[in-house]
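Retro notes, structure queue

What went well: the backlog is down to a handful. What didn't: a couple of records were mislabeled last round, so from now on we paste the full input next to the output in the thread. Example, using 3-oxoacyl-ACP reductase FabG from Antrihabitans stalactiti:
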Amino acid sequence: MSGLVAGDAAVVTGAANGIGLEIARLFYSHGASVVLADIDGEKAAAAATALAADPNKPSAAVGRLVGVACNVTDEASVQAAVDTAVSEFGSLDVYVNNAGITRDASLRNLRPEDFDAVINVHLKGTWLGVRAASAVMRGAGSGSIINMSSLSGKSGNPGQTNYSAAKAGIIGLTKSAAKELAHKGVRVNAIQPGLIRTAMTEAMAPEVFAERESAIPMKRAGEPAEVAGAALFLASSLSSYMTGAVLEVGGGRLM
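Corresponding output:
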């Protein structure tokens, strides 16, 4: 086998589409077996089938793919995704906390239930993933956990007091967990994407998208595959001496 994560077993949450799907695709193309976990189990299973059947997949794509339903706010559901990787692939080497939602509104109009929903998916969901994955990885003496933050958690965005707070919290969680787990050989790092072309951002008003894009030094939005490249780096041995790090993938925005 060849590839940067050849022979590894990974779980990627929010993997039915967008950035999560591209991470799963890239891991698989580099030899990993991947559990695609998503709140929509049918879409996750369909995505896994499509990736496996891709006639253009590289020769390194020799792992296996499984799609499962996973509610990241539910402890038992997160544990089931971890257990699937161990039972199907024999190990858990990489866990990517990618699942996320938005419930944008001004501070005045944001409903408490929408604040709770975003905090639960992003922050509690990441914490549950870190806890469940690290329990397996500690025993193995190795592993890489990758948490998806956002540049919104660095600068804050109007209308996103819930989302920005959750994404900032993920950085603190990442650094704290990294310090707890380093002596066990488990690395915990984070990625902060900027403006990336996904269904979420393409739902923005065109003039708002254009305004934000113009403020990026590279003068363009990023692609999901570019975030996936950072995840692959953090999953692989190329980053073996990195933990508690935060990689910005934002075209130079907020540097």
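Agreed that this is the format going forward. Reviewer comment attached to the example: The chain has a mean pLDDT of 96.
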